[in-house]
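Cross-check.
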Amino acid sequence: MSESWVTVGRPGYFGRRRDEKVAGYDAKYGKGNWRLAWRRADSREGMAFVEACVHFYEKSYLDYLSKRPDDIDFICSFGECIDNALSNIQSGTYYGNQESYSTHIQDIAIRNVLAHLGRKFEGPPTQILIIRSSDTNGFRFGPGNIPFFDRDMILEPSLCPSWAKRGSVEDFWQSNKFLERKQ
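Predicted model, tokenized:
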């Protein structure tokens, strides 16, 4: 018998409060009795985290970077990439390994896109591309700057964080994220 899920709401951006939010949902609904799911605007079926990362996040990065060989060359000139901590490198190409204080997806998406394009990091291991805030060397590759591959999929009203552009991967990720509980 398959599980049935009921939408509770659209929780929006967690950021550094991820662990606090998860603990709150565990307390309210019970551990394992709630989930986050991402949906297309034209669907009521949600995708779990890892599947949504591949289907939506990674697809947007692939669409964007495959048309920009100079950006790929720039990325490959580094030894690795991270979002918020050196430990992000341990995630490799698996979105489910979230070892840091906030969720990091863009670094994993870039690793997967490079592999898909037959490319790899070629720079010194100590030269790290940091894909985070405006004062980092990889800011332009952040999810708030990468266009989502199909803006018509983004739900309104937008729950885009103030630091991200409308129509970006981040806009989709936050606007199309649903909190669901077991029925």
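The CA atoms of residues 160 and 171 lie 4 Å apart. The chain has one domain: 5-182. Passed to J.P. for a second look.
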